[in-house]
Amino acid sequence: MRTLHRESLAAWAFAAPALIVIALFFGVPVFAGLALSLTDFDIYALADIGNLRWQGWNNYVHVLSLPLFWQALGNTAYFVVLGVPLSIALSLAAAVLLQSKLVRFKPLLRTALFAPVVTTLVAVAVIWRYLFHVKYGLVNYTLQHFGVDPIDWLGDPHWSMPTIIGFAAWKNFGGNMIIFIAALQAVPHDLYEAARLDGARSWAQFRHITVPNIAPTLLMVAILTTAGYFQLFAEPYVMTQGGPLQSTVSVLYLMYEEGFKWWNLGLASAVAFVLFLIIVVVSKGLIAVQRRLTGEGA
Amino acid sequence: MQRRRLLTAAAVAPLAGCARDSSTTTLRFWAMGRESEVAAELIAGFEREHPNVRVKVEQLPWTAAHEKLLTAFAGDATPDLAQVGNTWLPEMQALGALEPLQPWIDRTPMLQAADYFAGIWATNAPGGQRVGLPWYVDTRLMFVRQDLLAKAGINEMPRDWAAWRETLARLRQHGMDKPLLLPTNESAPLLALALQQPEEVLRDGGRYGNFSGAGFRTALAFYLERFQRGEAPGVSEVQIGNLWQEFGRGSFAFYLSGPWDIGEFKRRLPAELANAWITAELPGPTGPGSSIAGGASLAMFKRSRHKPEAWALISYLSRPDVQLEFYRLTGDLPARRSAWAMPLNGATLAEDRHAAAFHRQLERVRAAPAVPEWERIEKEMQLAATRAVHGVTDLDATVKALDARVDGILEKRRWMLDKARA
Question: Of A105, A119, B47, B178, which is most buried by a Cβ count within 10 Å?
Fold first, then answer.
């Protein structure tokens, strides 16, 4: 009994450094954030802590009653629903292309396709702003040759989010592409050979062999990408500042504005926790889907 | 224990060493943007006059300056003095971060309130407490393509709204599609029109919004009319692309902007257009109208331990000759009337072709409401106006929704004011 006790004590002692670091740099800030979200901390409270008022759940009620919050949530959902499938489809297409025997200069292509991931977001955002400029942009210039009237990509509230989605998908597909390449290389070759002998064309091979074999990877990538895309911030921050007509304000951008521009840290913390809950629910939902699918497959 | 004490001693020793080993004082001065680059040149003269004082100019980008000042206050790291945009003064004053300057001004005979533009002078005393001294000033007025007006047979600048309406209509008759540029992402033009009205923008001492009042309705109606009549395009600045190029091409004849654009227009417009454009005062409802009192001030922080030295630097930077030198280096307009009257290139600044209109306009400027929440309210105002420009809401719905939003933003302020009264 005594030795058991001592052993568990030793285990705790070994785990202690990691636990302390987690408590200090994760636990404390999260609880401080939670406490902050129950108050109306702002510049008045910064001047004199006596100006701090306990809000209870009022901040959460306020956030949920803000039209801008629902608009931001709608914008974010729009971005996720369109952006995640597009981004995954792009990465998968690129990965399959790079695996194909028909393609040459594979290392070069792989590097080129991966390059957007490692470039600085701000720098490429500036270039995209030029490309999509209504008057002098290359995109409209090209479209004009096909008789399409100039589109105000970043200035028209209907086009701003699709442009941001395109930018994000282009910027991020390379990372998932690498994961897919690894998954594709693990698919046994004899399966393809057998399928070919049965007369399967490439599309049938892709549908019935490639997709089922990389399904677990596909779901993991979907979960990671969804969680990441819910945290949309940098793209609208550098490209549109949430405009035009707040059509690119995301939940995280709303939090940034409330917290660091207007210094309403209480309300901003409440927004952060609401976003956290949304991401947890969506990720849990995707994991449940994964369980069911793999359960059925087995 | 022993070891910890030793470490503390080692850490403290160098600090103690550099703080008090000579009689030299080092001032920390925070300045922003272009001003911060130029400040170093002006400081040389100050350091010659005060051999015991060294000034360290720390440069902040404008976009980060506001956050940085608040963070510095929260983290007890404010500098000795700083350049503070005069719309930020109410906020910094509400924080209690700034040193009241009236006693210091009283002891400095060189600084006379009458030498400053009255409208600007007023912006530096939020809540009745003077916490800033104007460093440079700005306001908004019209940049006009005179030649295009002349081509349409208009030889006189519009001085009131009626004449302005007529001028714009005439320009359209003469084939100019959109003679006026009012970028929808800018709040300043609408704010200037609102400040021309006799009513306050916020009522009851900044407790509630007054946007559904008659004054703001008049201003917004005039603003929206420009878009409804097709005189101004409903676009934001980003969509215009190169503003100077478009102005040079004659895409528009009127543009509302500040003194920084004098230098930009001189530099970027082709030489043959040098005499084609001019600045003109903002037309008002019934005659020459007011505009916004803008600019930046010098402020001293309460926590500074070198206040006499910091004040010496503020007074030095406020000297008319230094102000004029500052203008020469940056194009920022001097805050003091005496600097405008000093000889410059054979004339005075007040007689300069492009600055003269600013000189006249500065005599008619009015401050935005001095509440810490103002910047946010102005943003809400601009968003509401953009919605109205695009026809999402009509005028009545716009002003009512705006009042409701603003009353919500001012809730904490009302609570603070009631608490202070009780």
Answer: B178
Interface touch A262/B376, C-beta < 8 Å: yes
CATH number, domain A67-297: 1.10.3720.10
> Tell me, what's the ipTM?
0.71
Task: Identify the pLDDT of residue A238.
Answer: 86
CA-closest candidate to residue A260, choices B408, B60, B69, B209:
B69
Contact A164, A79 (CB under 8 A): yes
DSSP state of B367: P
CA distances to A12, B43, B80, B217, B327 from B312, rounded to whole Å, are 61, 12, 12, 46, 20
Amino acid identity, position B299: A
- Write the CB contacts of B50 (distance below 8 Å, at least 6 apart in sequence): B309, B312
Task: Provide the CB-side half-sphere exposure for A130 (13 A, CA).
Answer: 5
Runs of H (alpha helix) within B21-101: 33-49, 62-74, 89-95
The residue in chain B having the minimum alpha-carbon distance to the alpha carbon of residue A256 is B67
Burial zone of B314 (CB within 10 Å; 0-12 exposed, 13-18 middle, 19+ buried): buried
* All structural domains of chain A with their residue ranges: 67-297
Structural tokens at position B408:
């919500």
- List the domain boundaries for chain B: 24-138+293-352, 141-292+368-421
* Location of structure tokens 């039209």: A67
CA atoms B200, B204, B207, B211: torsion sign: negative
Interface test with B, best of A46, A131, A240 (most B CBs within 10 A): A46
Sites in chain B below the pLDDT cut of 50: 1-21
Place A194 in a pLDDT band, splitting at 50, 70 and 90. very high
Q: Is B94 on the interface with A (CB under 8 A)?
A: yes
Q: Domain B141-292+368-421 class?
A: alpha beta
**Chain B interface mutation, best of A42, A43, A264, highest count of B Cβ atoms under 10 Å:** A43
Q: What is the pLDDT of residue A135?
A: 75
**d(C-alpha A241, C-alpha B108), whole Å:** 45
Pairing of strands B81-85, B294-300: antiparallel
pLDDT of residue B4: 43
pLDDT in tens, A116-159: 999 988 889 888 988 988 777 889 889 988 888 888 888 788 89
The pLDDT value given to residue A243: 73
Q: If we measure between CA atoms, which residue out of A287, A282, A292 comes closest to residue A81?
A: A282
Instruction: Give the CATH number of domain B24-138+293-352.
Output: 3.40.190.10
The per-residue pLDDT for range B317-363, each reduced to its tens digit, is 999 999 999 999 988 999 999 999 998 888 898 889 899 999 999 99
Is B369 in a helix, a strand, or coil?
Answer: coil
User: What is the pLDDT, as a whole number, of residue B40?
Assistant: 85
A to B CB pairs, distance under 8 Å: 51
Please indicate if any CB of chain A lies within 8 Å of the CB of B239. Answer: yes
